[in-house]
Amino acid sequence: MYKAHKICVRCWRKEKYCKCNNKRLELIDHNMVYIVTHLNKKGYKTKFSCGGHVENKFIYIYILFYNNYAFDTLPEGFVYKNRILFYENMKLKNKKEMQADINHKIRILKTWVKTLNNAWQHYTGRQFDGFIFITTKNFNIKI
Ligand SMILES: [Zn+2]
Question: 27 C-alpha to center of ligand 1: Å?
């Protein structure tokens, strides 16, 4: 079943808890709410995401980021390319198997998000050779 929530992307709260004057509500897949909310709170700005739908012909779970963040680790089975972190599986045919695979990958993604450092702590103590880092508000951008 497709399920999504209206989340304010300014404060990353559910609609009923948002107190923003200029709230901006966007639909976020039920299984991605925790993941994108925590990524944004940690300073990794996200643009779009999809938690994978068994109604589709194949599984595609993805998060598109605003910037090219340099992650030290990636969630198992995911690829990070052109600002998109994604997992795809074209092999599964029945919905039950697809849902199980989606649930498994979402768990891996959640664990990864929990262990991620804040974006603005990401580079502390490291050499900045080869890249220029611009600090805007609370996150670092690799350009
Ligand atoms: Zn809000």
Answer: 13
Question: What is the b/e burial string over 35-49, where b = at least 16 CB atoms within 10 angstroms of the residue's CB?
Answer: bbbebbebbbbbeeb
**Are the C-beta atoms of residues 105 and 52 closer than 8 Å to each other?**
yes
Q: Report the separation in Å between the CA atom of 95 and the middle of ligand 1, taken as the mean of its atom positions.
A: 35
d(Cα 104, Cα 94) in Å, to the nearest integer? 16
CA 75 to ligand 1 center in whole angstroms: 29
Distance 7 CA to ligand 1 centre (A): 8
State pLDDT tens for residues 89-126: 999 989 999 999 999 999 999 999 999 988 876 554 44
Structure token pair of residue 69: 């963040």
Cα(29) to centroid of ligand 1, in Å?
Answer: 18
Q: Per residue in 40-75, pLDDT tens? A: 999 999 999 999 999 899 999 999 999 999 898 999
Q: What are phi and psi of 103, to 5 degrees?
A: -60, -45
pTM of the full predicted structure?
0.81
**Span from the CA of 25 to the centroid of ligand 1 (angstroms):** 8
